[in-house]
Amino acid sequence: MQRDYDELAARFDSTPPKSNGRAAETSEASVTLTNASDVKVVPIRWLWDGWLARGKLEILAGPPGLGKTTIALSLASVVTSGRAVARRDAMP
Q1: Would you say the C-alpha torsion 61, 67, 71, 76 has a positive or negative sign?
Q2: Are the C-beta atoms of 52 and 85 separated by less than 8 Å?
Q3: What is the 3-state secondary structure (H, E, C) of the chain?
Q4: pLDDT in tens, 43-72
Q5: Cβ partners under 8 Å of residue 71, min gap 6
Q6: Phi, psi of 23 (to 5 degrees)
Q7: 16/13 Cα distance (integer angstroms)
């Protein structure tokens, strides 16, 4: 398994990050491989308990007319005004 990882890692150039934390621009694409055992596990901080994680990418998707915009605007209102998001046990 380690040999496969090493062979795959050798196929890609590792671009050192710039001082701003972003990868330096190159003419070729690059990939950085990380073993899952090296990934640091951190607890999830919830904005909306069990539904919406803080600081993570969330995708609000679905067919038209379901209320995605309404939910997004409601969440924006709650977050920017410092109010609490609805609790899961208080939902219908």
Answers
A1: positive
A2: yes
A3: CHHHHHHHHHCCCCCCECCCCCECCCCCCCCCCCCHHHCCCCCCCEEECCCEECCCCCCCCCCCCCCHHHHHHHHHHHHHHCCCCCCHHHCC
A4: 999 888 888 898 899 999 999 999 999 989
A5: 60
A6: -65, 145
A7: 9
**Same-domain pairing of 52 and 19:** no
Residues 33 and 2 placed together within one structural domain of the fold: yes
As given in the structure block, the two tokens for residue 81 are: 């005004």
Q: How many domains does the chain have?
A: 2
Quick one: 62 and 86 in the same domain? yes
Single pTM value for the model: 0.48
Q: Which domain holds residue 67?
A: 46-90
Cα distances (angstroms) measured from residue 30 to each of 2, 26, 61, 68, 80:
20, 9, 30, 35, 38
Q: In terms of DSSP bridges, do strands 52-53 and 46-48 run parallel, antiparallel, or are they unpaired? A: antiparallel
What is the C-alpha to C-alpha distance for residues 68 and 53, in angstroms, rounded to an integer? Answer: 17
